[in-house]
Amino acid sequence: MREIILLNITGKDHAGLTAALTQVLAENQANILDIGQAVIHDHLSLGILLEVPPAAQSGPILKDLLFQAHQLGLNINFTPIDEDEYERWVGLQGKPRFIVTLLGRKLPAQILSRVAEIVSNHAFNIDSITRLSGRFSLKTADTGKRACIEFSVRGELKDVDALRHDLLEISSTEGVDIAFQADDLYRRNRRLIVFDMDSTLIQVEVIDELAKAAGVGDQVANITEAAMRGEIDFKESFRRRMALLEGLDTAVLEEIANTLPITEGAERLISNLKRLGYRIGILSGGFTYFAEHLKQKLGVDYISANELDIADGKVTGKVKGEIVDGAKKAELLQKMANELDISLQQVIAVGDGANDLPMLSLAGLGVAFHAKPVVRKNARHAISTLGLDSILYLLGVRDREVS
After folding, report:
1. pLDDT computed for residue 233 by the predictor
2. Which one of 40, 201, 282, 399 is separated from 9 by 20 to 30 angstroms, measured CA to CA?
3. Distance between CA atoms of 202 and 369, rounded to whole angstroms?
4. Any idea which architecture 95-183 has in CATH?
5. For 66-122, what is each residue's pLDDT tens digit?
């Protein structure tokens, strides 16, 4: 009868351990069926599932392994695996796999416990847990530190709405973000990212800044907030706000453009995605004047926004052409994907307002970034605790891989 044995090896890590142990298996012509290794704080945990050759016996192999482990200062345990149990395990490999990404400034144990419980309640099994964020010192007060771990889970997704509801409840009460997505080829093969501009790529609403300069800041801000909450149709709110800007001197535009506050992590995210071959776009209900400024500053490839109508050095209170609203953003995103000859599953869209929801739902990875409650609730993914560069974690990129 075929012998299958699971080895669990633990102890202080140092160079050459895996080579020495697998050399024993090689000398005994054992077949490795599965292997996994992790090192946390210089402590090794190594698992090997091996098949004893039909012409051999397990006794001598285990004796040699025990001797080698003792020499290396390691602990080793052996567990015999029934052949039928092994075949049952093999049969599970066809089940769908998903990624749960947990990120925040820090990750207390109670949050990991709650996420693990939700995963279990929805009949998923955790295959592995990986830290994507870098190590950070406990002695320095770094307000910009990031913490991220990734769960690889396996199982059938029966009720995605219920699962997202449970995870969103943790996000809304614990100050962390949790993303759930399929672990498929598209996740590792995105090619285009498009951003809303105002309150996403930059930390202000440009139209509010223009309104302040025109002395109508409170009026415009109230309309903006109502539109972002989805209480007013975007086109109607846009016309109302623009009308209040009539007569504003265009010299103000350059002043505002030169002082736009870039959102945390935007430059880090864009520079690294460009290094990976991504194309970068801005799809904005704001204005081309400011989008062009960001295009030069950040290395953006495409922009689509509203063009201010200007006459005699003054803003007329109107825009040229069609207003870029939510439906138009989705249309333009589809057009970009077609021109690049890529699937929408290869597109990332990032926005904060209700008018961004159409493009967020269309993209393979739609991220509501520091968004209004109605947007977080309706988007598939939301980030509210970290900067834009945390999107790299959703792609499985580790801090050590980022320039």
Report:
1. 85
2. 399
3. 11
4. 2-Layer Sandwich (3.30)
5. 999 999 999 999 999 999 999 988 887 778 999 999 999 988 999 999 999 999 999
What is the signed CA dihedral for 109, 167, 366, 267, rounded to 10 degrees?
-20
Look up 389 and say whether it is catalytic.
no
Marked catalytic residue, from 13, 166, 177, 196: 196
| Residue 178, Cβ density class (10 Å: 0-12 exposed, 13-18 middle, ≥19 buried) | buried
Catalytic residue among 13, 166, 177, 198: 198
Taking only the tens place, the pLDDT of each residue in 145-195 is 899 999 999 999 999 999 999 998 998 888 899 999 999 999 989 999 999
Asked if 196 is an active-site residue, the reply is yes
Q: Is 312 helix (H, G, I), strand (E, B) or coil?
A: coil
Would you say the CATH fold of 95-183 matches that of 4-91?
A: yes
pTM, whole model, 2 decimals?
0.89
Query: Yes or no: is domain 4-91 CATH 2.40.50.140?
Result: no
Indicate the fold that domain 192-401 takes in CATH: Rossmann fold (3.40.50)
Whether 209 shows a pLDDT value over 70: the answer reads yes
Q: Where are the domains of the chain?
A: 4-91, 95-183, 192-401
Closest C-alpha among 366, 395, 398 to residue 146: 398
Handedness of CA 357, 358, 361, 362 (dihedral sign): negative
